[in-house]
Prior knowledge:
In chain A, 38% of the residues lie in helices and 21% in strands. Chain A has 15 helices and 18 strands. By secondary structure, chain A is an alpha+beta fold. The two termini of chain A are 15 Å apart. Chain A has helices at 2-11, 13-24, 36-53, 118-138, 159-167, 215-218, 225-236, 246-251, 257-265, 270-278, 291-296, 337-351, 376-389, 403-412, 437-453, and strands at 57-61, 68-73, 81-87, 107-109, 112-114, 145-151, 176-179, 191-196, 198-207, 213-214, 300-309, 318-319, 322-331, 357-366, 369-370, 394-398, 416-418, 434-436. In chain A, the strands form 5 sheets. In chain A, strands 1-2-6-3-7-17 form a 6-stranded mixed β-sheet, with helices on both faces. Chain A has a 4-stranded antiparallel β-sheet with strand order 11-13-9-14. Chain A has a 3-stranded antiparallel β-sheet with strand order 4-5-18. In chain A, strand 4 (107-109) and strand 5 form a beta hairpin. In chain A, helix 1 (2-11) packs antiparallel against helix 15 (437-453) and helix 5 (159-167) runs parallel beside helix 14. Strand 11 of chain A pairs antiparallel with strand 11 of chain B.
Amino acid sequence: MLGTVQAYLKDNHDRLVEELTSWLRIPSVSSYAERAEDVRRAAVWAHQKLADIGFPKVETISTDGHPLVYAEWLAHPDQPTLLVYGHYDVQPAEPLEEWQSPPFEPTVRNGNLYARGVVDDKGQVMLVLAALEAWARAGGGLPVNVKLLLEGEEEASGESIDAYVRANPERLEADAALICDTSMISETQPSLITGLRGLVYAEIAMYGARRDLHSGSFGGVAPNPIHALCLLLSRLKGEDGVIRIPELEAATPSPPAVEKRFWDTDPLNLAGLLRHEMGVDALVGEAAFPPLERLGARPTLEVHGIRGGFTGEGAKTVIPAEAVAKVSLRLPAGLKPDQVFDWLERAVHRNTPDGHRVEVRHLGGGEGMVVAPDNLFIRAATSALQATYGVTPVFMREGGSIPVAALLDQVLNVPVVLMGFGLPDDALHAPNEKFSLAQFDRGMATVADFLGRIRR
Amino acid sequence: MLGTVQAYLKDNHDRLVEELTSWLRIPSVSSYAERAEDVRRAAVWAHQKLADIGFPKVETISTDGHPLVYAEWLAHPDQPTLLVYGHYDVQPAEPLEEWQSPPFEPTVRNGNLYARGVVDDKGQVMLVLAALEAWARAGGGLPVNVKLLLEGEEEASGESIDAYVRANPERLEADAALICDTSMISETQPSLITGLRGLVYAEIAMYGARRDLHSGSFGGVAPNPIHALCLLLSRLKGEDGVIRIPELEAATPSPPAVEKRFWDTDPLNLAGLLRHEMGVDALVGEAAFPPLERLGARPTLEVHGIRGGFTGEGAKTVIPAEAVAKVSLRLPAGLKPDQVFDWLERAVHRNTPDGHRVEVRHLGGGEGMVVAPDNLFIRAATSALQATYGVTPVFMREGGSIPVAALLDQVLNVPVVLMGFGLPDDALHAPNEKFSLAQFDRGMATVADFLGRIRR
């Protein structure tokens, strides 16, 4: 039966890519209020696609934010139920001028499909939908029961799905969850994710004088919020990469010996791959920890944006009244984002230079998680990847945060299979985001295989 | 004769303010390439006004940048010649949303005229033009010979006037120069400027990875140019206000004892005025020097603008490939800006965190100057201010930079009278720039008086 399913995917490849392309044309940027209608259109697209596949129940669920799309197809009382998660919203595409082709006009170059959201996450949702369609049309129906929940706020607050999952645990009851929203090490080395860091995202606003000042008249005695913000951020993390939030360091657990050994020895030379992807000669960060541990298990503090004063063409000798930075902390599994935000806020106030006023705003976040690898579903995913790639997958911790993975883990108490088909050079959240069409094909094949393997 | 001149100014007050208003409506922002035509229109306005006053020779001089406007009226071979300088270009008006009335729609509120450029410098040029007009129409002609040179690049590079003055010292030969482009202490305490700091303006661009990165995938090992820029700026100047460019500190002269005493004792409580204008409880800066010395004679380093990464609404977990800051150094008189730029560039490279690449771009600058107060023209200005305000003016060093003052001092070797009528709360270079109409009136009266006093 798997043979006809895989043949269906090959035969319908071009049409499936075409469908993905039509979804990618919708600029569903969830963090821009003016894009709300586009986000809704992307949800409608997903609703229609699920109905076309044959899901007997499909719902678009209104929320305080962007809608959720829920579908279920429960035809086998004796088979396990898989809950599939994905998101149909995308990151902002700016800076637009750095895109080689427009972010919402999907374009194929060198075997890659370029578009905002192509790998994060529409393309990876599409490969699951394609595998489900192939089983439905060519495999005699889905081999297991499937529930599917798509959100439109993954790149924004994620609040709606959080509320919905907590309010509807019976409806979402399942034996395992599948999330295709991560990357693998390389196209020849598959990997499964066994840990995700949590996240706290905050905005720090620094204030000085009550109005902008002329540096000629006030320079030397005036507060300068840009400079104060620089001093603060330098104090929160020095060039040594050490984050000076003592509560956070004290709460960071030591990793298991087996993972520590993998990170210390780095047998796949992943550090070399990271350098290559970034185009740098050396990695930065905490010297006391190997790069893979810094990436997967250590807390991080990053500044994502900063603005203040005059940034146009030419020269203006203003001392602005205000400057703003956006920062995030990535958190080891187990830490509570709200608690960590309090620690951050205290550290910000403690380190703000005299003569300035500071505000810290909590913009969102999520908990990390660790997946135990010893269960039927992880074993099935391992076998499916082995079958497609001919190589045994390795278990990795992912530096990124997928708050919903921790949510499903905690509220539904199910194993979460984090099987993603992105590659390290896919430029997630950056200009020229891409998805390898070969990885798209292998992803469809692997998920189709996985669905067959979890049948009892 | 002075009586009829002053009466003319009173009688024509409303029409003179109306003329100024029409000049202010032209958005002559010299640092915006797309405003070049508006800058030219502002030059044409000045040309026409000078012709209307009766100057027998008026020229608009093309340059590589914005035009110069030159006029001369040399009717008295036995009288001294005064060279008047001013500028008709203005600073950018952004952020526009902070203006209570639009920057290029002059509006009177509470006895103040609000508009971009109203005090810096169109309004102050206008009060000189008004005094000249009053002498021409009601005083029997100008009492002395007058040359007048207006530029349109004071808020940008200032390169054209520099080249012109150096190439035409005979044409511009004079006995003294008058510049009305500064502020006085308060509307009851007139002051004359006896020193101006020099300026170096630079842009620092910091680079990390070859493209923007997702902090989930790379955070902890990736270079972050925003953070590196913050570290760099924190190293160039700490919270203690001390600039860590050793060559600059070594080259900073000790001030004369009389000025040092004035700064140490601050008999007019100018520090209190500064706090009031800024709306702050305490001044910041180098604790080892009194505020007035920090403001007038010490070098300063200020960050005027910074940008990098994502600064829109909401959250985006990007690590950008680039971040940029604009900085200036104010310089004690006598230091050469090009030399100081080299020191800055060296300090930037020395203090750039590992793993990042930095570029420093020289955007402009000018030398400082010190005026000796013991000459006929400064004495005449002192008496004119005393006559108008009923209070003896004090001599001050101005923290700002007027490169052309140093240029006239050096190339023409004339005393430079820096007599400005701005007030500390005029919001130069900031939203809601204003000029007190009472100060405008007193300025016209004072300059008219001054012109009479320098007649032999």
